[in-house]
Amino acid sequence: MLRSLDIRDMLIIDRLELAFQPGLNVLTGETGAGKSILLDSLGFVLGWRGRAELVRQGAAQGEVVAEFQLAESHPAWAVLNEAGFAYDDALILRRVNTRDGRKTAWINDRRVSGEILRAVSETLVELHGQHDDRGLLNPRGHRLLLDDFGGLTGKVAKVRQAWRSLAEARAALEQAKSDVAALRAEEDYLRHAVAELDALSPEPGEDAELDQQRRRMQAAEKIGEDIMKAQQALGLDGAEGNMGDAARWLADAAGQADGTLEGALAALDRAMTELSEAQSGVEACIDALAFNPHELEMVEERLFAIRGLARKHDVLADDLGTFAEGLRSRLEALDRGATDLIDLEAAVRDAQATYDAQAEALTSARRAAAAKLDKAMAKELSPLKMERAVFTTEVTEQTAGPDGVDEVAFTVATNPGAPSGPIGKIASGGELSRFLLALKVCLTGPQSGLTLIFDEIDRGVGGATADAVGRRLSQLAAQGQVLVVTHSPQVAALGDHHWRVEKRQTKDATLSTVVGLHEGERIDEIARMLSGDKITEEARAAAKALLVA
């Protein structure tokens, strides 16, 4: 509930502190005393749109502080917890408006955005009046109100889940169609590229190996002539033959040389062995470097083919195999596409059937709740002297969406046979007030957690009708907290707590103040409301009678 309201330098209020109580809180006062300023100030701290100029003349800034006492289960804490606030049994809203128009808001001494402030305030206070477009007169909220009245939260949740599932199934199908279309657009390319890569079948590392082989074969042509000359020099007509002749001649002479040639013969034998090994090495090199123009051509052809494909597909030569696998996967996806589309289309049909069934069940429940609400409204309108009025909750079909296929509108006909229409356009001022009150009585649950504010909702009614209005306000207040600005003595007499708004003139300014009334002062205030500024004993007696009624 709203525990207190502290207003400083707003319009014609210099400083005002109000402590509210549970139950029915009534504010009365002469026209122009400043009752609307209280609501403007409260609306300001709650972040509602209001007057552009709020700061009191001569003040640098205006400030309003509202303190609420809330249970931890109150919906406001769900909003605040998401914004990073920890629970506190006191919720303090503070908002400042400077002379140059800058507005700043705090919640529990932490600065917040206007968006968070408004999201919280929607769970705290609900204003109703003859020109209210925030609550019951807003047709966009009628469906939500009917769902709350009918206890349809669970059914709505099922429809929303079915809608999400349907949306996901549709999105998956559309994505699959898009993917298949894209693949089909490049099918010729994919199949040609895969065939080309499969025909070549490059291996990782093959590019480097072929390049090395090519270099070696190219080098063989250049060094082959020198190696052949070396082979010839080491051949029979060269060193090998000469060394053989020398060995034979020395062997013949060794028998007569008394062993002096043994060292030379041994050295010559070793030289011939080394020469033989050298010849073998040269021959091996000749074999390894054997130049075959046709083989070089084949090596270059494959090397250039691999590098050409790598350039064509903008990948490294060693990555051609992986690239080919990716292309094959896309072709497989294309080949699977038709089957996948069939499965996804079936999933969409199933999701649509589920949504249709849930939406149909919700529509039936809404129609039942609408009939129940219409019956409850007829019961409430009779004591409000509107027994001939007809209230109808229309549930009509609209485009399917997350909340079902229904559009809900509250319509009224003020007399049987009269045309019905939107509640805000058909009813007159006084009728509208009573329609709104009856609706609020029917729609408000015992644990709504809202502080309800009614701004002159009893205007245009009096006598027994005003008494009926007051008793319904009292009924609402028994479930929580109600603040009502009223000109009706019947309504004021039913208040649990009573304040009088007064305007006083100082030397320099006109100021508004609020005074809490005790029993004797309440009698005088209600008597004034009955008879005007001149209070008679008859008016006092009538006021006492209203207070004890």
From TrEMBL:
Biological processes annotated in GO: DNA recombination; DNA repair; SOS response
GO molecular function, one term: ATP binding
Keywords per UniProt: ATP-binding, DNA damage, DNA repair, Nucleotide-binding
Any one GO cellular component localisation term in the record: bacterial nucleoid
This protein's record includes keyword DNA repair: yes
RecF/RecN/SMC N-terminal domain ranges (all copies): 14-506
Keyword ATP-binding applies: yes
Pfam families assigned: SMC_N
Family statement drawn from the similarity comment of this UniProt entry: Belongs to the RecN family.
PANTHER family in alphabetical order: DNA REPAIR PROTEIN RECN
Function in brief: May be involved in recombinational repair of damaged DNA.
Protein name per the record: DNA repair protein RecN
Higher taxonomy: Bacteria, Pseudomonadati, Pseudomonadota, Alphaproteobacteria, Rhodobacterales
